[in-house]
């Protein structure tokens, strides 16, 4: 089955009859794997915590809460259309923004923290580059969305 958004076909073996259901389940699986990576080694380093049973239970609960908040913030960022300001693409030829809602939420928070320290520098730079003012104003709108 060739997915319209992918360049390579997916070959899925299943005993299910409904193709749409198969694709939905497989996409969910991919999201779950990304979540495990975020929690284990990517974002919260659960794997490296070396906590005892009670500590691990408490840590998993805290991670679940923080992960949910970060994913919700990332979802808001995606819906707002300001994703490119908060998490720009590193590869110029890449068109898809393939970062999870989790990472968008994390970087959105980092963007807010950095803004608090760099606001004077950024405003000074904008005075030196007035042609960039429209971009700066779009960035300010993105920031105000994050601060709300």
What features would you highlight for this structure?
mainly alpha, 148 residues, single chain, 5 helices
Write a structural description:
The chain has helices at 19-42, 53-80, 83-86, 101-128, 133-147. It is flat. It is mainly α and 148 residues long. 67% of the residues lie in helices and 0% in strands.
Per-chain topology:
Layout: H1 19-42, H2 53-80, H3 83-86, H4 101-128, H5 133-147
Helix pairs in contact: 2-4, 4-5
Radius of gyration from the CA trace? 20 Å
SSE series: HHHHH
Q: Helical percent range? A: 55-70%
State the low-pLDDT regions, or none. Answer: none
Strand content: under 5%
The shape, in one word, is flat
- Terminal Cα span: 42 Å
User: Based on DSSP secondary structure assignment, what is the total number of beta strands?
Assistant: 0
Short précis:
With about 150 residues, the protein is an all-alpha fold.
């Amino acid at each position: 089955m060739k997915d319209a958004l992918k360049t390579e076909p997916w070959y899925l073996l299943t005993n299910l009859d409904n193709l749409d259901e198969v694709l939905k389940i497989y996409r969910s699986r991919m999201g779950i794997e990304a979540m495990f990576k975020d929690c284990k080694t990517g974002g919260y380093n659960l794997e490296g915590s070396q906590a005892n049973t009670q500590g691990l239970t408490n840590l998993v609960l805290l991670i679940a809460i923080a992960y949910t908040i970060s994913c919700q913030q990332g979802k808001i960022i995606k819906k707002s259309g300001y994703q490119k300001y908060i998490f720009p693409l590193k590869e110029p030829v890449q068109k898809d923004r393939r970062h999870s809602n989790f990472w968008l939420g994390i970087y959105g928070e980092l963007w807010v923290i950095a803004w608090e320290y760099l606001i004077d520098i950024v405003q000074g730079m904008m005075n030196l580059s007035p042609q960039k003012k429209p971009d700066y104003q779009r960035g300010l709108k993105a920031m105000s969305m994050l601060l709300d």
